[in-house]
Amino acid sequence: MSMSENDSRLPAVPDQPVLSEIARLLVDRARGEGIALTGEGGLLPALVANVLQSGLNIELDDHLGYAPHAVEGRGSGNSRNGSYAKTVITEVGPVEVQMPRDRNGSFDPVTIPKHVRRLDGLSEQVISLFAKGMTTGDIQTHLFEIYGTEISRETISKITDAVVGEMNLWQNRPLDRVYPVVLIDAIVIKVRDAQVANRPVYVAIGVNMDGERDVLGMWLGPTGGEGAKQWMTMLTDLRNRGIADVLIVCCDGLKGLPDAIRTTWPHATVQTCVVHLVRNSLRYASKADWGQITKGLRAIYTAPNIEAATLEFDAFADRWRSMYPAMILSWENSWNEFVPFLEFPVELRRIVYTTNAIESLNARFRKAVRHRGHFPNEQAAMKVLYLVATTRRPNRENLVGRIARWKHILNTLTVHYGDRIEAATK
Question: What's the pTM value of the predicted model, to 2 decimals?
């Protein structure tokens, strides 16, 4: 008889008021007897040990088909064979149980599986702390201070290695044939190889035909900074994973990147991120003029159409060209990749004229890596970034999810890209 088949003989879990009363009585008794709630000899570890021990004993009863000392066990072909002590790490600290054995060696418990010395809750907590940017040393200290649980850094690293297989599957998963919008950007982190060096992490976020936003992939590039040639490799990977067409690609103003995008998806509209353009403009200007410059630029990128934006830019250029010629030249060189979004309604502009979604992801990356200094190797870096990119945070805006007013946006896209939209829905 299996454990699940025999669950009917276990009492039902009490409702919340009953549980609260049991907890109050236990705490009152612990206080009265001077027993700590957690730590060695504490109430909670003792309770957990009791529950686990009971589960193991019940499982062995079910496996053998009879209770201890029952006459049904005579001549059954299998019997109890003593037990051995085992310490298990739990969320309330280490607890010791007696692992029962059967003479045939066929008993395989579920409560505490063979070879397991950590229960899942603790592993999940370690991975959660790792995703928040804590180092293995930070996690080790945290678990000891909170639970009195001592786990080596090597063990913590092995726990986090459990996500590597999942990460590889995620990075190589098939993608949709057509994406209306793809946003791409890069962030620089420090990774030790032969020596510590700056390495770009290339990131792509896509919005699919249902208006769902998702991180499509992340790639750790070689030293030397972000480059269009490296982007070509990453974009080719996206195409090989199934993306045959992208309607709009939003990117920064990196030289050569628009050509790399059009080589990968010849019919894609390349939209330069306005935020990058504005930031780049301010690099050329004195801080004393920033207020007037940003006001003039805002009039350009909020213009109702291309004609109005051109007039605003002409006036802006007349005013600032003599003082900041490089700033004006940067806009003229990027103009063809800047203006496409002006043909779209406000809702679509918000999606494509800035890489804010990736900026938000990069901010999370920076927070996770800020106090680390550097990563010991590539895998350690990608583990953290993968967990940051895929972990949903409660009560926060998340990177994945449906775009607001998507049906209205899809109607606008259909007007501009009708045949390609229809091809995606066949």
Answer: 0.66
